[in-house]
Amino acid sequence: MIKLLITSGRGPVECRIAVRGVLHALLRQAQAASLDADAVEGNDPDSRGPVSAIAVLHGEDAAEFARGWTGSIQWIAQSPVRPHHKRKNWFVGIVQLPATEVRADKIAAIDVRFETFRAGGPGGQHQNKTESAVRATHVPSGLSVTAREERSQHRNKALALERLTKLVAARNQLAELAGRRHAQAAHDALERGQPVRCFKGDNFLPA
Asked: Which run of H or of E encompasses 40?
């Protein structure tokens, strides 16, 4: 499991918009790379975008995938909230969080909703023949994860519950990091002039 912190640091509202756009782009590319990825967003004061977010990657190639995203990310776009603003380059930072375990409180079974479905992608063709994949949703928070690696629906259910527990813990970790200004410090340490990835436009297409 790899956890990536995406942060707007001390940037303006456009950087928070970029956090959400970059997060969605990362999740799309993770899926295209046959990785399971979950995400949780932090404080969003005006519904335009979170100050920071955590993406949780699962799979054998998760570490290699994460290396291609770690660093400064550039978004080239006219400000959607300040159309006359001259600036068109906005930056967010992505850092890999330490592998130390965050305390994960047990989730009450009554608070989890399970769904099964046929899964393509990781696991091979055998998964398309039965509804072996499982989606678990933590009803109180709305957080959701999927598990599809195993052939057994029962094992995927257990795996999904484990991931959901860790994602809820990541949400708590996100709040703790914001309180310690970890996100701002991580963002300030990045070189804005050397982005590892660049996106453009409202759809966050690769530049």
From this structure: strand 36-41
